[in-house]
Amino acid sequence: MIYNLELEKQLLAGLIKDSDSLADISNFIDSDDFYSQESNLHKTIFTIIKQANQSGDDVDEIIIAQRIANMGLSFQDNLNPSDYIKSLALRKVPQGNVAKTARELKKISVRRGIYKAAQDIAREMKNVSPETAYHEIVEKADHVYNSRINLYETGEDLPVNIYDEMEDVIEDRGNNPVTEFGMMGPHPKTNKMYGSLLRPGNITVIVARSGVGKTQFCMHYASWVGAKYDVPILHFDNGEMSKEELIMRQCSSMSGISMHLLESGKWRQAGPDVVKKVRETWAKVKKLKFYYYNVGGMDVDSMVNTLKRFYLSKVGRGNKMVFSFDYIKTTSEGSGNKNEWQLVGEMVDKFKKCVQKEILHEGEPIIPMITSVQSNRYGITNNRTAQNIVDDESIVSLSDRIIQFCSHMFILRNKTADEIEIEGNRFGTHKFVNIKSRHLGEDVAGALEPVQVGDALRKNFVNLEFHNFKITECGDLRDIVRSAEGTADLDDSETEEVPDFDQF
Question: Cα dihedral angle (165, 167, 171, 173), rounded to 10 degrees?
């Protein structure tokens, strides 16, 4: 059923009796939700009620009939609008039934919108040239569909007084404690200080210069989480790295075999141990669900549509997944008069809206996003000392919206020569510096309090070791200080490699 005239009559009857109840439904019901007939009488009645409500005018069946008469409209079958409206006003409508009726009507309107979209798509597909590329066909269908209807949100929520709910929320959480917010990652120090970097509806951003390892970090993090929680990963690549290169990198990371041997194909001639490690890696990844998609040249609307389509078709509504995007930048032409920073800001806006407000389960976000962005020249470490490096948000390129809309933001950079000399080789090759955290873990002090280093106070950071595309956590700045003072040694747990994927 794609329309229900009886339900429309019931809703209009309720609004005629109590036009103030329109305020409860006006954010998700409009005239287009009424079925279009030749007369469009229901649409007309609703529009008059809505206009009167907006202007603060009183309205009843007599006023509505008079306004329709003044419009000079004629209706099919010689329908007398005055008599019709009087019959609506005489209907029995249970008190408080307007909102319930409106929600039922919205469901029917959505179905009708889908039906019409399907018809439009069918007509569009008949006219598609045989030479049209696959992605263009899909984009045409997406365009038609999205111009018709939004499936994801009806906008029924209204502002609420949070203090009315404070007692219930806090008491309920006390009765039902939560051990994990989102999906926890592979690094114990990072988990303790900042909690999950993959909270549903949130975006985590990794800021780094080209070649530092931001792609590998995001892929390693997402893959590990995908293995631990048995959820699919959707990875968008902006076209800078091929699928084959990503495969080689992941295999190198998981097997410990050098990238050169894999890329050259010489791993088969490198001895039985190498062959065994490579083939064991294939067994590890059999259960992993890591989906790659090249979005180079696509506009952001097409990307968002692809994400929605993947979630609904491959994952299924209500199921978890992780969205990884490498990396935030402009990827297509057709920018018009917009600057690059405006285009990037628009991209972040739309991805944030998608994961926070559009793809929902029982009204709540379900998809977390991890992405990366290029740092500006202040993040360059080549031939520079630690004092010449800026480790704050000023290194973020292009748009302040990236900072505003993310929940976590980290700088990932190579350590300078003097840092390695001072710290020694036990504390990794990279610094992982937090510059924004909307959420924290149990070690709040580690995340927020500066660390005393000699006579100075310095922002804490996590040490990471990048070796052959394998990423290992090596403690934080506090561990470096304790080691230098000889007061404590680094715990074995803090230098332990991430468990192999086949352990999950």
Answer: 40
